[in-house]
Specification:
By secondary structure, this protein is of the alpha/beta class. It has a single domain, classed as Phosphatidylinositol (PI) phosphodiesterase (TIM Barrel), CATH 3.20.20. Helices cover about 30% and strands about 20% of the residues. The protein contains nine helices and nine strands. Helix 1 packs parallel to helix 3. The protein binds SN-glycerol-3-phosphate and magnesium ion. SN-glycerol-3-phosphate (G3P) binds next to strand 2.
Length: about 240
């Protein structure tokens, strides 16, 4: 049986502060196939990697990313209370590309354009991905499907996926109609009737989040999903290699 690809959610975030260079390095060292990360735009239009629109939860600072310049954001500590990683800074997207360049890893770039649309983010991420020569190793995803359609318009060669959560009708048909490459469902969406069969019929990859328990990892393998997005890539590798 083929095992799913293993993509480290916010880097190897079960072992290091989420969405930081150490978490991405650890994912590569552990043998993950890829990393998932979240992008936002600073006040001076630099793409940075952070899950929340605000820095309060993951740093020793407070406020919105969009109200800070990159230089100001770099003053904060993003070790998120983990003493072993004290002094870790917020990474730019460019720094992550450079870090992972020597590896064969895939990057799933999630555009955080849900609450705030960050005008220009789609153009900026396409430009940067092209400039760094990463277009064939990236898949773009977002809960904001307008963002994904825009990425596709800007870069027809880009691989893209729709993120979604609860109980939407006929997602495989919707994905096919909008010509995206993949669906990124929350794990529990796998239980809807004929889900995998319909995705297979439309040739839609299924990349599932956030799959952390042994039971869920094994279910994903049994169902034949393309990738699991997990906080624990080391654990997933061990389970899939048994
Ligand atoms: O991309 C998968 C997953 O990261 C989506 O949810 O909130 O963890 O970004 P969230
Ligand atoms: Mg995410």
């Amino acid at each position: 049986m083929n095992s799913p690809l293993i993509w480290a959610h916010r880097g190897a975030s079960g072992y290091a502060p989420e969405n930081t260079l150490p978490a991405f390095k650890l994912a590569a060292d552990m043998g993950a196939d890829g990393v998932e990360l979240d992008v936002q735009l600073t006040k001076d239009n630099v793409i940075v990697v952070c899950h929340d629109e605000r820095i309060d939860r993951t740093s020793n600072g407070a406020g919105f990313i969009r109200d800070y310049t990159l230089k100001e954001l770099k003053e904060f500590d993003f070790s998120n209370g983990n003493g072993a990683f004290e002094g870790t800074k917020i990474p730019t997207m460019e720094e992550v590309f450079d870090l992972l360049e020597p590896t064969g890893l895939t990057i799933n770039i999630e555009l955080k354009t849900g609450e705030y649309f960050y005008p220009g983010l789609e153009e900026a991420i396409v430009d940067l991905t092209r400039k760094k020569g990463w277009m064939d190793r990236v898949i773009f995803s977002s809960f904001n499907h307008y963002s994904i359609i825009k990425i596709k318009e800007l870069a027809p060669e880009a691989k893209v996926g729709f993120l979604y959560a609860d109980g939407t009708l006929n997602m495989p048909g919707y994905a096919a109609e909008n010509q995206v490459d993949a669906l990124h469902p929350a794990f529990y969406n796998l239980q809807y009737p004929d889900y995998m069969a319909d995705c297979n019929m439309f040739d839609i990859d299924v990349n599932v989040w956030t799959v952390n328990s042994e039971k869920d990892l094994l279910t994903c393998r049994d169902m034949g999903v393309n990738a699991v997005i997990t906080n624990y890539p080391k654990k997933a590798i061990e389970i899939y290699s048994r």
